[in-house]
């Protein structure tokens, strides 16, 4: 099973002859273990014909190496092995008597009881792995791990019992190694090429076979990690790039909206995108002066009133603190403002008071640009030569104590005509939410079906009232003439149209009642089921109308 | 710079004006128990419409920063209208929200609410069922339903 996944599968087996001094004298040092010249000694490389029978206690990618030996069984165990294992094959006793050197066990897989005996014996020794071979002298790759040939009959429990990995090699290779284990188990002199070897190697040294099983996993698991890391990296990069892009896009959109607000293309207040209020600095630039009776004609009265103002007792520039002296600045700010009365305003200024010495923005008393006897907010009449008034760029006048708090805290639109009092190039701070809202509104407006709504009004046989269309008032076509406090701008009552008179005939009570009761029941049911979520959704989808 | 004025003066003024010129849209309109911040109104159904003959009680709550902020207006008598919640009496009217201006008086507001009866917006419904009838073009159904409720849920003069 594990072969296929590549957690631990043997990729190759290397057997070679090592020489090393007696660890009892020289210690176990890496540099003491030297390969013997392969031309003079046994070596073997098996690259493919290896099966992994058990991966117990192996870690992927960690090669297994050690000195080769044949575990020694107890007397009487596995008599069948007698003919298969040379008498002088390397045993534990032929190796240094230390548990600090790794070992690799080799034995033929004769039958389950022999195998169990060998594995139990190897368990006592510091083995890194056990290599079995079928004593069939076959050169073919051994059967698969799940083959019945490898069955111990314990349901695989041996794999957990014996804490080392187990591999299988072909019968011929196993036999060959076993044969050489017999050659390299004793003194140098008895080994193949013993005379030559003894000339180069201290005769007291060990010359033994060692093996290394190369185990897969070098690449498989690390590559998985690398793969995951790459995926993660790509994800992070995508997120980063997206985030940067969105930030950039949002900034662009904010700037675009700001430009459109400044250019007057978008009226934030009229769209209801946000409640815009008027900063104090802008408010203070709006003219403040004492009200004068309004029955005179603007053009001529402006001169007479400014001259006639000194004799009257009450008007006094009551407000010293402001630093902005000039009122006319507010006029060019608003291109929407009606043109006819403007001329009267800047002209009286210079003659009336010395422009620079007077620090207050309070102007001398003069009539408002057109007749407005009443403050539309508190509904009180202005008293000539007594009431101080604030004039908005649209030339509507109010008590400053009425209009100032309203503009500072509630709105930037004139309560009378809904014109913005802000300078045309003024833009409030634009937030992402405002951008979203504006885009949504624009999209919605594009998608609205122009002929949907009238049906309901036809039914009710009434003309569309102006109540809801007042949003159009922001566009500036408002003449500055109308206001009397009686009828403020947004609400106008039109007479019913003379058109249809085809209302359904007066109800026949019983039928109606039945129908009504039925619908009502449905209505109540649905109402109970839905109310809060429903409202939210509608609010989200149609924020303009909420 | 200048302090907002108390709404009391303006409300008193509105009350005076109302006595001088009563509003045709309402059967009655005035403060509840001399509390100028809480008014009560009885709205009349416009003649020649499906709401004809109807009477609905409304409660009007004046905020402390009136008239800079709109009053809260609510139908106390159930009314069958796309933009009025049948149970809570909540009204979806722009004048009561973002289109509010301090020049609007309570009397004007009630006139506007009466107008709303004949100029519903089925696209921003608070009463989905009647709005649905409108949108489906079931005008006869909508009208009979309205007439039914106008009769059944009529302010009884309590
Ligand atoms: Zn005022
Ligand atoms: Zn104005």
TrEMBL record, chain A:
Residues 375-418 form the RING-type domain. GO terms for biological process: ubiquitin-dependent protein catabolic process. Residues 312-323, 347-357 have a biased composition (Pro residues). GO terms for cellular component: cytoplasm. It comes from the Eukaryota. This is RING-type domain-containing protein. Residues 1-19 form the signal peptide. The chain crosses the membrane at residues 224-249. GO terms for molecular function: ubiquitin protein ligase activity; zinc ion binding. The lineage of its organism: Eukaryota, Fungi, Dikarya, Ascomycota, Pezizomycotina. InterPro entries: E3_ubiquitin-ligase_domain, Znf_RING, Znf_RING/FYVE/PHD. Residues 297-369, 487-510 are annotated as: Disordered. Residues 298-311, 324-346, 487-496 have a biased composition (Low complexity). Keywords: Membrane, Metal-binding, Signal, Transmembrane, Transmembrane helix, Zinc, Zinc-finger.
From TrEMBL, chain B:
Residues 6-155 form the UBC core domain. Signal peptide: none annotated. It comes from Trichodelitschia bisporula. InterPro entries: Ub_conjugating_enzyme, UBC, UBQ-conjugating_enzyme/RWD. This is Ubiquitin-conjugating enzyme. The keyword Hydrolase does not apply. PROSITE patterns: UBC_2 (PS50127). It holds the Pfam family UQ_con. Keywords: Ubl conjugation pathway. It comes from the Eukaryota.
């Amino acid at each position: 099973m594990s072969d296929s996944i590549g957690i631990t599968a043997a990729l190759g087996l290397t057997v070679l002859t090592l020489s090393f001094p007696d660890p009892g004298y020289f210690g176990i040092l890496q540099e003491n273990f030297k390969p013997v010249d392969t031309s003079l000694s046994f070596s073997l490389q098996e690259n493919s014909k290896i099966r992994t029978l058990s991966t117990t206690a192996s870690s992927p990618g960690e090669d297994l190496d050690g000195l080769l030996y044949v575990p020694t069984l107890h007397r009487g165990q596995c008599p069948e092995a007698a003919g298969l294992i040379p008498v002088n094959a390397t045993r534990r006793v032929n190796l240094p008597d230390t548990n600090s050197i790794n070992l690799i066990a080799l034995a033929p897989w004769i039958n389950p009881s022999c195998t169990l005996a060998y594995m139990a014996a190897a368990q006592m020794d510091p083995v890194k792995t056990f290599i079995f071979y079928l004593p069939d002298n076959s050169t073919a790759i051994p059967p698969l791990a799940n083959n019945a040939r490898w069955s111990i009959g314990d349901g695989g429990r041996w794999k957990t019992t014996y804490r080392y990995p187990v591999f299988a090699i072909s019968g011929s290779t196993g036999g060959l190694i076993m044969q050489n284990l017999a050659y390299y188990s004793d003194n140098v002199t008895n080994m193949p090429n013993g005379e030559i070897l003894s000339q180069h190697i201290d005769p007291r040294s060990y010359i033994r076979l060692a093996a290394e099983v190369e185990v897969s996993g070098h690449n498989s698991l690390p590559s998985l990690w690398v793969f995951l890391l790459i995926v993660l990296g790509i994800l992070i990069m995508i997120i980063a790039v997206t985030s940067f892009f969105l930030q950039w896009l949002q900034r662009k959109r904010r700037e675009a909206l700001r430009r459109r607000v400044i250019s007057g293309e978008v009226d934030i207040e009229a769209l209801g995108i946000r409640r815009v209020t008027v900063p104090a600095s802008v408010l203070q630039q709006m003219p403040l002066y004492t009200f004068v009776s309004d029955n005179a004609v603007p053009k001529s009265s402006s001169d007479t009133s400014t001259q006639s103002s000194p004799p009257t007792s009450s008007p006094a520039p009551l407000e010293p603190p402001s630093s902005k002296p000039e009122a006319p600045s507010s006029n060019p700010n608003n291109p929407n403002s009606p043109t006819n009365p403007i001329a009267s305003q800047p002209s009286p200024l210079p003659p009336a008071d010395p422009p620079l010495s007077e620090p207050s923005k309070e102007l001398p008393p003069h009539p408002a640009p057109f007749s407005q006897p009443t403050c539309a907010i508190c509904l009180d009449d202005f008293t000539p030569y007594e009431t101080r008034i604030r004039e908005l760029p649209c030339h509507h006048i109010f008590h400053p104590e009425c209009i100032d708090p309203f503009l500072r805290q509630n709105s930037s639109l004139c309560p009378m005509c809904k014109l913005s009092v802000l300078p045309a190039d003024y833009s409030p701070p634009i937030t992402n939410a405002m951008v979203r809202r504006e885009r949504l509104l624009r999209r919605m407006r594009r998608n609205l079906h122009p002929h949907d709504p009238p049906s309901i009004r036809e039914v009710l046989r009434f003309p569309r009232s102006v109540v809801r269309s007042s949003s159009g008032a922001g566009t500036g076509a408002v003449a500055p003439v109308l206001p009397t406090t009686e009828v403020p701008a947004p609400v106008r009552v039109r007479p019913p149209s003379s058109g249809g008179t085809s209302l359904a005939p007066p109800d026949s009570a019983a039928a109606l009642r039945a129908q009504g009761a039925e619908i009502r029941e449905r209505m109540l049911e649905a109402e109970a089921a839905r109310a809060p979520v429903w409202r939210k959704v509608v609010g989200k989808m149609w924020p303009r109308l909420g | 710079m200048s302090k907002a004025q108390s709404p009391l003066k303006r409300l008193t003024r509105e009350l005076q004006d109302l006595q001088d010129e009563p509003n045709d849209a309402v059967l009655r309109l005035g403060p509840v128990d001399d509390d100028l911040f809480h008014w009560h109104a009885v709205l009349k159904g416009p003649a020649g419409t499906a709401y004809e003959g109807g009477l609905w009680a409304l409660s009007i709550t004046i905020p402390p920063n009136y008239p800079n902020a709109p009053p809260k207006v609510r139908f106390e008598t159930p009314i069958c209208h796309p933009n009025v919640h049948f149970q809570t009496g909540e009204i979806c009217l722009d004048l009561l929200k973002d289109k509010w201006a301090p020049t609007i008086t309570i009397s004007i507001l009630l006139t506007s609410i009466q107008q709303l009866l004949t100029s519903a917006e089925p696209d921003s419904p608070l009463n989905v069922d009647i709005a649905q009838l409108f949108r489906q073009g079931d005008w006869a159904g909508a009208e009979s339903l309205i007439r039914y409720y106008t009769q059944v849920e009529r302010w009884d003069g309590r």
